Amino acid sequence: MSGHSRWANIKHKKAKSDSKRGKLFSKLVKEVMVAAKLAGGDSSSNPRLRAAVEKAKGENVPADNIERAIKKGAGGLEGVNYEDGTYEGFGPAGVAVLVYYMTDNKNRTVPEVRQVFAKYGGRAGEVAWIFDKSGVFTFDINSMEEDKLMEAALSAGARDVITNKDDGVYEVYTDPSDFHRIKTSFDSMGFKYTMASVSMVPKTTVHVEGGDARKVLKLMEELEDLDDIQEVYSNFDMPLEEMEKVA
Questions:
Q1: Domains within the chain, CATH numbers bracketed
Q2: In DSSP terms, which residues pair with 164 in a beta bridge?
Q3: Percent of the chain as helix, strand, coil, to the nearest 5
Q4: Exposed site from 89, 135, 140, 238, fewest CB < 10 Å?
Q5: Distance from first CA to last CA of the chain, Å, rounded?
Q6: Mean pLDDT of 67-80
């Protein structure tokens, strides 16, 4: 599971650049709009909207942008019909890649995704079964005592707490339905996490290095850069120094 959280944290760091940040804001705002359209603009009764708003706030999307997105979505998004979808496949070294997209033109998006897979020797294939949906938090290993985090996390209902010394983080895993409550608990105690999200976490991983590692990273990056792609998950694991080459 370490590869999963490692990649997510590197993506978060990369998003600090202006070009990456603008694209990330656009994707987060789109998710807020669609969530409001599907089940209304009240986040207390719309779990998808609540999650979208929290994620947008966590990435420092301005509050005005979020509010406009909610109003636009709840108003019906006239003339725009977004469709959720997934693309499953295998990348270099047989790693599983699960792509979530949101598009107003599936006939444009799917060929774009397929083309990126083909560029790196990938192919379509069923991989969703390799992943479980899970809440994930990471904490800098130097930011708090392990026992204190362990007690707080398990008391709040977390499923597991892992000390990942290689990456210098604690990883906390929760059931998706408990994520919001546990996040609120961490926030109330002043615990500063470096990442918090509901993600697709691989049950097993594929170790890659060298040339294959570079191809996997480029595949992931190019998929993430497509305008219609919301999230990309993979079951690769690789040395930290390989991943830092993209940071």
A1: 2-74 (1.10.10.200), 83-129+204-246 (3.30.70.980), 130-201 (3.30.70.980)
A2: 169
A3: 50, 25, 25
A4: 140
A5: 19
A6: 76
